[in-house]
Amino acid sequence: MSLEPLAGLRVVDLFAGSGGLGIEALSRGASRADFVENDSFALAALRENLRVLELEAESTVWRLELPRGLGRIRAPLGAADVVFADPPYAGELARNTLEQLGQAGVLKAGARVVLEHHAREAMPETSGTLVKERERRYGQTAVTAYRSGATSI
Question: What is the pTM of this model?
């Protein structure tokens, strides 16, 4: 799945790890990235990557447990054009995160969610305001893209 041009867009990188997806978006012209991670080792790596790449001014790092902590980042989510989510494959994190992102008032109309998940885990065609656009499989990994049809936030 190729990324659309990201010039000027705002992105949120959920389950960010060391920040690869959000950092790549910034390198492709995104204007701002919010990174959400809970693991202390991953957070240290993320902060160091942003420092070394001189991307701190365009970034905000949030230490939150997901998906439970999504309510604490309502403003960044509501302003986001693209939300990347790469949760651990164990359990129902992908589906639970998708359900919370699809609730009315979370994302603006037209926002995209790009969700990485285990290929065995089937993602729904819709989840609240989110409508599946496409899905690609790469071995045991699947990437599913959704677009928000919300009319207001």
Answer: 0.92
